[in-house]
Write a structure and sequence with these properties.
Glutathione S-transferase Yfyf (Class Pi), Chain A, domain 2; 708 residues; alpha+beta; globular
């Protein structure tokens, strides 16, 4: 029958089709994603990857993954760990490869063409995921292995992989009736586009939206020269010579608020910052937020949960939203009085200087710097000359070398996606390769805001048991030094780099046979590896090693190190309150159920903050319209995790301090093994107890923040 139909097709069409297929084959032959990379360490050949390669690669990767899934389904043998779970674990590698490159570059070096591809490919990926996780035949096989998991002679790790995959299918809706599955598909597809649009809007509002344009040099008083030079350079690039331009990115805004003497200028830039995606234009995020929370509430209800927060936290260490609220409120009641006390001290300074106004939110950072100088005789400008970017980087490498004995070697011949990216080879002390580390430091209009750790390849094992080394990437948004001036970091930027490096070590050290569990932890554990590294940055022994003056080469004086450590409690009321306010706002958005309709996003936010008694002088760290963590960044109902993990990291670092050696090799080996390398092998608290010998205590965190 097929042969007969083929003979009826006009010859011209056959020739045309063959020519088209030949062109497609030729294009695919040159597409780096279609074959194994031939580069050193088999890294992505960024220089060979072109815009036109992405979409064909995504489509081919989805086709291949579909075939792999269908092969599992078509296998007529009794479902087992090997022929079902393990095959599922191995499947989809090409899709992982393409997506890891595309979406990382979309975040770090985006453009309109990439954003257009993202809009086209996102629904394809969403539908593909639906087709897998809502596939009844596939789920039936997984379920059969799950039911027989204790009778197959599987080891503990294999049983955990089976249980986690079964849980994934259930939480995706595989156990629903057909009508509910179809509704889940619709909601997933719509959500994928909404979250993408949220991020695109925020990037546009930050890079191409409001700009503070200063024409009078008097209005620059107080700003460091490096910041003035960068603003003049930006103005030149925007064809506004003789002016100074400031964009409302977090790094620029906070640095400006800390030092600018002109109060009106501070207010204008801060308003530009906290009004992002809230300007009733085509980049406004309010309607998106309303729909996102509606969809999340409906999906949670379909899956048998009261709300999205309950769904998310059900698999976290916290277990349920009530536990999170209790935890956050306990800290809130400790932190808010401290923040009010800080405000009173700052108002007193302003009054002594003759101010005839009550402090507002745009005044906090400026007067906090004055308070730091008054109480601790410490000025940010006094610290920065000792925090040259390259020295900070080498300092964090040195800490890792002291703890784990690992080595870092810069590679100059590895393909990178942007000329500013550095790559380091990471090895054990004996030279065994652990993986590669990419570092992308500098702010640019094509990069989304903030700092994050990601990867172009996860560490894993192939079918023959050979280790595949991870490719880890750290991305930040530091203002680049202008001209011949070096890039000098603030103390916050320094600890941020140490923080992301902690995530990087987690990625580098992860070791496990199965992708589903290797290194995979609950969301409220994931910040432990990063936050524990922040503790090392301020240790005198560490600062003496890397903090040297960029001009004189002199090490940071002990007196200045002492000031930094004495100021550890500085502004912690504010820092804790603004963070907790955002965490509680997140929870409020995601404890909405399907019976509740949000009419006004800003009114909802204001009511949430009024309920907890947030003072007007402090805004939540992220207001709703630019709260990328929860509306497009994977932290929905989970922004609390940073401070939940802070309890863990303070307790863990306390173990090193109590030992009398912050580089205690035995403790470091236990932390690497139980809390980083094998952390996915059992529940996160079990792994932590293997390291610490006990559950964490809150007291070290409260002491560290001066909240006791």
């Amino acid at each position: 029958m097929k042969r007969t139909l083929l003979l009826l097709i006009p010859v011209a069409l056959i020739i045309l089709s063959c020519n088209q297929n030949k062109k497609t084959d030729d294009m695919n032959k040159d597409n780096p994603f279609f074959t194994e990379y031939s580069t050193q360490h088999k890294v992505p050949p960024f220089e060979d990857i072109k815009i036109e390669h992405y979409l064909p690669a995504f489509k081919e990767a989805i086709t291949r993954h579909d075939a792999e899934i269908q092969a599992i389904i078509n296998n007529e043998a009794t479902p087992t760990f090997e022929n079902t779970i393990l095959e599922f674990d191995y499947s989809g590698q090409m899709l992982e490869d393409v997506a890891s490159v595309f979406f990382n570059i979309l975040s770090a070096d985006s453009n309109e063409e990439l954003q257009e591809i993202a809009r086209e490919v996102t629904p394809l990926i969403s539908e593909h995921q639906n087709n897998i996780m809502l596939n009844t035949d596939l789920f039936n096989k997984v379920e059969e292995v799950y039911k027989n998991r204790n009778n197959e002679g599987l080891d503990a790790n294999q049983i955990r992989v089976v249980e986690k995959y079964y849980e994934d299918f259930i939480r995706s809706g595989a156990g629903l009736d057909e009508e509910s599955k179809e509704r889940m598909r619709e909601l997933n597809n719509e959500m994928s586009m909404l979250t993408l649009e949220f991020g695109d809007n925020l990037l546009a509002e930050t890079s191409n939206g409001y700009k503070l344009i200063i024409e009078n040099e008097e209005n620059l008083k107080g700003l460091p020269q490096s910041m003035i030079d960068a603003a003049a350079e930006l103005a030149e690039n925007l064809e506004m010579p003789g002016k100074w331009v400031f964009q409302p990115s977090m790094g620029t805004t906070l640095a400006f608020l800390q030092s600018a003497e002109n109060r009106d200028m501070r207010e204008q830039l801060y308003r530009g910052y906290f009004m992002r995606a809230n300007n009733d234009n085509d980049k406004d995020n309010k309607k998106l937020i309303k729909r996102i929370v509606e969809i999340r509430a409906e999906k949670a209800e379909l899956l048998g949960f009261q709300n999205h927060a309950e769904y998310v936290i059900d698999v976290n260490m916290a277990e349920n939203p009530e536990n999170v609220y209790t935890f956050l409120n306990k800290l809130w009641h400790a932190a808010l009085p401290v923040a009010k006390s800080e405000l009173a001290e700052m108002q007193a300074i302003a009054n002594r200087e003759g101010a005839d106004f009550e402090l507002e939110s745009w005044d906090w950072f400026y007067y906090a710097e004055k308070l730091r100088k008054e109480k601790y005789d410490l000025d940010e400008s006094e610290i920065k000359p000792y925090l040259k970017l390259e020295n900070v980087r080498d300092g964090m490498f040195w800490v890792a070398e002291q703890l784990y004995g690992i080595k870092f070697k810069k590679l100059n011949d590895i393909p990178v996606y942007h000329p500013e990216v550095e790559v380091f080879e990471v090895t054990e002390a004996n030279g065994t390769l652990i993986g590669l580390l990419y570092l992308d430091y500098f702010a640019r209009d094509s990069k989304r805001g903030g700092a994050w750790c990601t990867g172009f390849r996860e560490g894993s094992y192939d079918r023959e048991g050979n280790r595949i080394e991870p490719l880890v990437s750290i991305v930040t948004n530091y203002p680049k030094g202008t001209g011949d001036a070096p890039t000098l970091l603030s103390w916050d930027e320094t600890t941020t780099l140490f923080h992301e490096f902690g995530h990087g070590l987690h990625g580098l050290f992860t070791d496990g046979l199965y992708k589903r569990t290797a290194g995979v932890v609950p969301r409220d554990y994931v910040e432990l590896p990063s936050q524990i590294m922040e503790n090392f940055a301020g240790e005198p022994e560490v600062l003496r090693h890397f903090a040297v003056h960029y001009e004189t080469g002199e090490p940071m004086p002990d007196k200045l190190i002492e000031k930094i450590n004495n100021s550890g409690h500085f502004n912690q009321g504010f820092a804790t309150v603004e963070y907790l306010a955002a965490s509680l706002l997140d929870l409020n958005w995601h404890t909405i159920n399907t019976t509740y309709s949000v009419e006004d996003v800003i009114a909802f936010e204001k009511n949430a903050m009024n309920e907890i008694g947030l003072i007007d002088e402090i805004l939540p760290r992220y207001r709703s319209t630019y709260f990328q963590h929860i509306f497009s960044g994977g932290y929905s109902a989970g922004y609390y995790v940073y401070i939940w993990a802070a309890v863990l990291d303070a307790d863990a670092f306390n173990a090193f301090k109590e030992s009398g050696d912050i580089f205690n090799k035995d403790l470091a080996a236990k932390f690497r093994k139980h809390c980083l390398a094998e952390v996915g092998d059992s529940p996160a608290m079990n792994q932590y107890i293997k390291f610490r010998g006990q559950e964490p205590e809150e007291e070290p965190l409260l002491k560290r923040r001066g909240l006791m």
